[in-house]
Design a protein that fits this description.
Keywords: Acyltransferase, Transferase. This protein has 106 residues and is α+β, with helices and mostly antiparallel strands. The protein is built from 2 helices and 6 strands; from the N terminus they run βββαβαββ.
């Protein structure tokens, strides 16, 4: 989590998925602080935490396939498409919200 003047301004989730795989989720930055470098610092901290806590060698994440600008942001930071997609977890299924899976070696 990131705080500024006592207020929460960013957060990220890291979870163990397998022996060498961690999952990155819920990376969020206060909209007025986007493009300030905070997201990148949170991402770097999450990757470091995955290595230190889980001995992860890879990090995966899911992004709604329609979020091209967000996918591009992660690609600039070393994440690549795995070719896998996952459904958005709602019933009935909503194909317009499918996730693409991105992965990065740590």
């Amino acid at each position: 989590m990131a705080h500024r003047h006592g207020a929460l301004v960013g957060c990220v989730q890291v979870a163990r998925v397998g022996d060498d795989l961690a999952y990155l989720g819920m990376l969020t930055v206060e909209p007025t602080l986007q493009a300030s470098g905070l997201g990148r610092r949170l991402l770097d901290a999450a990757e470091s935490e995955a290595v230190a806590r889980f001995a992860a060698r890879r990090m995966e994440m899911t992004v709604i396939h329609r979020r091209a600008e967000l996918i591009a942001w992660y690609e600039r930071r070393g994440y690549r498409h795995t070719g896998e997609t996952r459904p958005f977890p709602v019933a009935p299924p909503r194909p317009e919200l499918d996730f693409v899976v991105l992965e990065k070696g740590l």
